[in-house]
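Give me C-alpha cells for this 117-residue protein.
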Amino acid sequence: MDWGCREVAILLEHRSEQLKHMAGDSLNQLPRVLEMSLQYVKRFSRFTNQDSIKQVREVLSRYQMTEFELAVLGNLCPETVEEATSIVPSLKMAGRTYDDEAIEKMLNDLLMIKKFD
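Here you go.
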C-alpha cells in the first residue's frame, strides 16, 4: 500500500536525481510534471523520514483499517477524535470496535511519531 506523500517524494527525488545525472545536472531538463509532482508531495508530506513512515504504518495497521482509512489518517494526521471521525466517518460505523478512547490512543501514537520525526 503506497499512500504516504513522503514515500512518493522519496521515489520522485530518486527519479529526479537519475534524470539530472543523465542530463548533466541541468534542472531544466526535468519533465515539468515530475518537477510539479515533487513540489506537491513535499508540500504535503507530514513525515520526513522512512523510519517515521514505517512507524505510522505499524501503528495504523494495528487497527485493521481499510487502505482508504489508513491513507487519510496517515496523510492528514488529525489531532482530535472529532476531526478523525469527521474526515473518516467509517471509524464510527456500527460493528467497528473503535471507541473514542481507542481513536484517541491511535492519534496520540501518530502525534508522538510526528514529534520525533
